[in-house]
Amino acid sequence: MPGRSKLIVVANRLPASRMGKGASARWERSPGGLVSAMEPVLAERGGVWIGWDGGAGPAPRPARIGEIDLRAVGLSRSEVETYYHGFCNTTVWPLYHDAIINPEFHRGWWEPYQAVNKRFALATARAYRKGDLVWVHDYQLQMVPKFVRERKPGARIGFFLHIPFPPDELFAWLPWRSAILRGLLGADVVAFQTQASAENFVRVAKRYVAAEGTERELSFQGRVIRIKACPISIATNEFEQAAGSSEINRRAVEIKRQLAGRKVLLAVDRLDYTKGIPLRLLAFEELLKERVLSANKVVMIQIAVPSREVVPGYGETRQEVERIVGRINGEYSHPGKVAVHYFRRSLAREELIAYYLAADVMLVTPLRDGMNLVAKEYVACRTDNSGVLVLSEFAGAARELRRALLVNPRDLETMKKTMVDAVRMLKEDQVMRMAVLRSNVRRHDVHDWSREFLEALPD
Length: 459
What we know:
CATH topology of the largest domain: Rossmann fold
Structural class: alpha/beta
Number of strands: 18
CATH architecture of the largest domain: 3-Layer(aba) Sandwich
Largest sheet: 10 strands, mixed
């Protein structure tokens, strides 16, 4: 990595949650891939994390957790509705995910989006000292690079988009497309999960703000901006070590026993309309109806983590999922053998890893996903090279995990065939595929990802 500069991470959420109130309040580390990725870098360099604590009202005072200085940005109740639920998750999120549901373009949301981005940029400028590196994350903060650049012209600024960047014909819908592009081009490095997203960005930057250059570098307003595909990964060693825990293995054996020793199909998703949960359930339902599979021998577990239920599309997805699960279980379950176990909650990481170990087949079939780290987590945990990964072609992970069984989640007939192939795959074929997948995940872990990105920033 270049030098020993302090790192300033700028992300929508802080890496910790505030527990309790008043003098007894404390910060607790939050789970998640970004926290795992940034923590060792911040520990090595020292640094600051700027983000929102998730509440409405004044920002909490600066705090420290481990090696990370926390600087909170406050949002009003109105901004939570307009900036976060509105522009971020009802405009940008669906648009960047192939407009799976129609994005909404409300003029009243644009000003709060800019205002909050300016507040993040101001907090960044206050924390900045000459030579520091600024790393801005994700779709909520696309204007921050430009606003930081205006305050600190000499700063080294990187931006990473964790979700897909849409093709020209969809990005063109955005009334504020030129402003968003100028915001992103305030960075020195703009990076994406896949080469396709990077190429989409280059095309629209050339078209709408007259940037010039190649797929790797753009020239804009007298500056050169590097464009990269830099797929995020996981802390592979941590998952491998946890998968070797005797306690977690005992829990995995207990899960299998509770499921009567049946073949286990597992899916773990946020309860989000982009994840393709209803189509996955419909494919399983048809296999049961056609008697290709039986609930006596096969069980599906769907873990659905609640998410953004006040945003249009999310509540409807929950209702649809629960309706299908109820119908499947009503028609195809047997005494002591439920066809679909549905958990609408998040699980502790140790419990989740136990489910990864218990699962014979992992179903990761989003309609569109920037990466999908669940696929990589499952692979990392399969230390005996057993198990089968069924993976959507439209997840960024499919570019790396090519020995998974790749599937178009909208093609139900092929989905059904692939699920059956996964359940019936011979042990030697499982071992051959999983060994390659594990090699891919071990070769490029989350620490490699952060190092590769930071090394791309100019000295």
